[in-house]
Write a structure and sequence with these properties.
Layout: E1 3-7, E2 10-12, E3 18-25, E4 28-31, E5 34-39, E6 46-51, E7 57-59, E8 67-72, E9 77-82, E10 91-102, E11 105-111, E12 115-119
Parallel strand pairs: 2-12
Antiparallel strand pairs: 1-3, 3-9, 4-10, 5-6, 5-10, 6-7, 8-9, 10-11, 10-12
């Protein structure tokens, strides 16, 4: 069974950095677009960044110039480098894959359980 698993969250001071990683587990051949979402308490989930299988990157305006998304297809993973973090970036961050081809065939809409990022002094 294909699953996404995040790591790298934690507590950081304002202005600091964190790197999140997400790995797809299973007998996977290819992954299409991979994305990072976040959800803060009392707020809707919002898209942070996405990267296609051709390495086209898109970012939400509120992270442009601060966050960088990248992927490693050999490791079936996606990462999010977060710099100059602000208290407003505090949220649960989860990764998402829109389509995965595995030994089970094509599957859609995979989401990890998320990892907490807290920005506070």
């Amino acid at each position: 069974q294909v699953q996404l698993e995040e790591s790298g969250g934690g507590l950081v001071q304002p202005g600091g950095s964190l790197r999140l990683s997400c790995t797809a587990n299973g007998n996977i051949y290819t992954i299409d677009t991979m994305s990072w979402y976040r959800q803060a308490p009392g707020k809707k989930r919002e898209l942070v960044a996405s990267i296609t299988n051709r390495n086209r990157r898109d970012y939400a305006d509120f992270v442009k110039g601060r966050f960088t998304i990248s992927r490693d297809d050999a490791k079936k993973s996606v990462s999010l480098q977060m710099n100059r973090l602000e208290p407003e970036d505090t949220a649960v961050y989860s990764c998402y894959a829109d389509r995965i081809w595995s030994n089970q065939g094509y599957g859609y809409d995979y989401r990890g359980r998320g990892t907490q990022v807290t920005v506070s002094s």
